[in-house]
Amino acid sequence: MEQNERRFAVLIDADNVSPKYIKYILDEVSDIGVATYKRIYGDWTDTEKKSWKNVLLDWSVNPIQQYSYTTGKNATDSAMIIDAMDILYSGNVDGFCLVSSDSDFTKLAQRLREDGMFVMGIGEQKTPKPFRAACDTFKLLEIISSEDAPETAPAAKSPAAGRADSLSMDAIEQSITSIDEIQKAIAKLLMENNSQNQPVMLAKVGNFLTKRFSDFDVRNYGYSKLSTFLESLDNSDFQVVKLHGGYFVQEKSASISMAEIEKEITRILQRNKGHVDNLSIIHDELKKTFPSFDVKQYGFSRISSFIRSFGTFRIKDNMIQLRG
After folding, report:
1. Backbone angles phi, psi at 180, to 5 degrees
2. DSSP-derived 3-state class of residue 227
3. Which pTM was predicted?
4. DSSP for 130-146?
5. Model confidence pLDDT, tens digit, residues 264-300
6. How confident is the model at residue 174 (pLDDT cuts 50, 70, 90)?
């Protein structure tokens, strides 16, 4: 089945979502499939939920009434979980979109995935890490809704508003996968699966990142295209290249020849009476001479394996010396 034909059950926790987000939630689902079920759960006798009426009519979302039986207990969660399991056993859908910022749905997401369902989670920045990780993919409401919002010129903002925006973005950046982790994951992918240094299709890298990090979305980092995001990364491991009209990701070629490095290691050892007691010293000296030096560019993950590959040096207990 084509991805955009997958049937989804969209289940929304009204206690944890604002009406202003409905459009963006359904847009995200439409990007990957069809919303077969559109249900929202809450106590609709609550006067605070009056603002939902027109929104639900406009977007044809079915409100499910759930009374609050006792104070302090969230009956909405239980109703949503029971409905999700009923829909699962009906066999009418290929995936679920769980919309909430509540960690109580972590177990539900895990259970649905165990049954082969694709699970998209959508919630606010405050959503706990366990629920995010339990989903195949997780989207931040603040991010997916910001695309349509015009940016206000800095001069028109009050200092207080500017500080609030800054704090909000800082909080989002701290809660998502770091750029450093993303760079390391891509470098590892290229190193482990690309021994001939052949370029890898950009789409394959994107799919890999989505599977590795459930909250990965280039919009979280202020970009609309994966290619632009990767091109912005300042790293020595890989680069984006355009070939045959398409975008690919490729390891950066080593700019320093193995012969030059071998000569430099030999000079370092000769200056130190033929041996150095710690491999880290060799590594640091090489970085001083060749600032761009990185063993990963030569297909190695450790400096010890890299040095052994020359055959000119002997390593014992972290000590390196010239072979006699």
Report:
1. -60, -45
2. helix
3. 0.71
4. HHHHHSSEEEEHHHHTT
5. 999 999 998 888 999 899 999 998 998 878 887 777 7
6. confident
Please give the pLDDT value at position 161.
46
The contacts of residue 66 (CB under 8 Å, 6+ apart) are 41, 42, 43, 75, 76, 79
Handedness of CA 127, 129, 135, 140 (dihedral sign): positive
Tokens found for residue 150: 């015009």
> Are the CB atoms for 321 and 275 separated by under 8 Å?
yes
Q: CA-CA distance, 97 to 42, in Å (whole number)?
A: 17
What are the tokens at 38?
Answer: 């559109």
> How large is the C-alpha radius of gyration of the chain?
26
DSSP string, 228-285: HHHHH---SSEEEEEETTEEEEEEPPPSS-HHHHHHHHHHHHHHTTTEES-HHHHHHH
Specify burial of residue 268 (Cβ count, 10 A radius: 0-12, 13-18, 19+). Answer: middle
99: confidence class by pLDDT, cuts 50, 70, 90: very high
Instruction: Report DSSP state, residue 4.
Output: G
The rounded mean pLDDT for the chain is 85
Distance CA 220, CA 124 (A): 12
121 - beta bridge partners? 98, 138
Distance CA 17, CA 100 (A): 6
d(CA 113, CA 189): 25
Query: In 10 A of CB 192, how many CB atoms?
Result: 9
10 Å Cβ neighbour count for 199? Answer: 20
> What's the average model confidence in pLDDT over 240-255?
82
CA distance 220 to 145: 11
Contact criterion met (CB below 8 Å) for 55 and 39? no
C-beta atoms surrounding 270 within 10 Å: 10
